[in-house]
Amino acid sequence: MVRDTLIVGLADEDIRLDVLGQANQEMSLEETIRFIEAKESGKRSAGRINPKPTAVPVAVDAASSTYRQMERRRLQGGPPDRKTITQNQLCGHCGKAGHSSKKQERMNHCPAFNHICNNCNLPHHFESVCRKSRQKQRTNQSNSATAVFETLCSIEQFACTIALDHHVYDSLCDVWEKRASTPQPTVHVEIQALPSYARDLKIESTLCGPTRTTTILAVADTGCQSCLASTSFLNRLGLNSSHFTPTSMKMRAANQNTIGIVGALILRITGFTQSIEPKTTRQIVYFSHSTDKLFLSMEACRDLGIISDTFSSIESVMTDSSAMQSDTDNPNKDRCHCPPRQTPPPLPTSLPFPATEENREKLERWLLDYYKSSTFKVCEHQKLPMMPGLPMRLIIDDDATPVAHHTPIPVPIHWQE
């Protein structure tokens, strides 16, 4: 079916006849495509060696022949026959004879005068003698072979085109889920501008005193190299554009578009948590009209404790969690002399003793010693490691109604053995 559709859709009638006239009518789709490509390549090569003359309208061709006759008569030194020329010369604007190409005579006798051509939208000529139509015809003929070749090569691409929505891999269920991207992480921070910060940089401050403190929802953008804020936050600080410090800083967005910086302020940014003391950082914040948010740079996120000092290092997650477990989760580490808890070793490939009744106790001691730092770790001073991965969830029917059971289900006796 695909092969027949391909043959019917061929733009070149000669190639279609060649394909249909082949003795082998059992060619596969790939063989047919290769045959058509060879025919197209041969026609292109022949066209470059011996190009065919472009067909022109009869009227224009006759007019060109009359012009050649005039030029030949002029070169031979003979006087031009005006009467013959006027009677036989075809007008290049309408394609008819009987009048010359002078404007005054064309105004009186040429039917194409004041006619608007539908091909080029220019006046004073018919479509049959339009020069732009001839140029377009030459271009289409030269590009027809390339267009057919590209169409043949892109048949499979059109057949496999799909619109892929965003998906997130669920490692727990081992499936891809159609889900929107995770929104940008945000955090509430307090910002304030103080004149002393400018004096520390040995620049003149435009502030009369500390501004009021305001709470803003900021975006923790670890890909941002400098803090960027909206100029709308100035009113919340009690400031205006005259309090900006001039800057030569130039910033670009992720799409390499220039971000217009109108000025800068040195701000104190404070973040709060429920378990530890507030953390503060001093940052030069650049203001722009092209945003309506406050973006915290990677350096600001590190100072506020949002990310660790070893951020962007793959080994940092395991190192930081191990250090936290040894320092905070083990308050009695001085009283414990047990080796640290480790992950289970790989499965043994062979037994140290034959699996006989006489070696039962030896095998038991060997297994206890092999897994003493992992599975059989009984030290009460070391907490069990957290399981990695996403939180576990119950996969139930969406229409199911939860029911509470307060009586345990009895376990059969043969299950306890």
Q: Are there runs of 5+ residues with pLDDT below 50, and where?
A: 54-64, 152-160, 318-329
Q: Summarize the biggest pleated sheet.
A: 6 strands, mixed
What is the level-2 CATH architecture name of the largest domain? Beta Barrel
Order of neighbouring strands in the sheet with most strands: 5-9-8-3-4-10
Task: Give structural notes.
By secondary structure, the chain is of the alpha+beta class. The protein has four domains: 2-52 and 143-153, no CATH class; 58-129, no CATH class; 186-303, Cathepsin D, subunit A, domain 1, CATH 2.40.70; 340-382, no CATH class. The protein has 14 helices and ten strands. The strands form three sheets. The chain has a six-stranded mixed sheet with strand order 5-9-8-3-4-10. A hairpin with a 5-residue loop joins β6 (251-252) and β7 (258-259). The longest helix is centred in the middle third of the chain and has 23 residues, at 131-153.
List keywords for this structure.
417 residues; alpha+beta; Cathepsin D, subunit A, domain 1; 4 domains; 6-stranded mixed β-sheet; 13% strand; flat
Give a short summary of the structure.
With 417 residues, the protein is α+β, with helices and mostly antiparallel strands. It has helices at 2-8, 13-20, 29-49, 58-75, 82-88, 103-109, 131-153, 155-159, 195-200, 233-237, 298-303, 316-327, 360-370, 413-416; strands at 167-170, 175-178, 186-193, 214-220, 227-230, 251-252, 258-259, 261-271, 279-288, 294-296. Residues 319-354 are annotated as: Disordered.
Layout: helices, strands, pairs:
Blueprint: H1 2-8, H2 13-20, H3 29-49, H4 58-75, H5 82-88, H6 103-109, H7 131-153, H8 155-159, E1 167-170, E2 175-178, E3 186-193, H9 195-200, E4 214-220, E5 227-230, H10 233-237, E6 251-252, E7 258-259, E8 261-271, E9 279-288, E10 294-296, H11 298-303, H12 316-327, H13 360-370, H14 413-416
Helix pairs in contact: 3-7
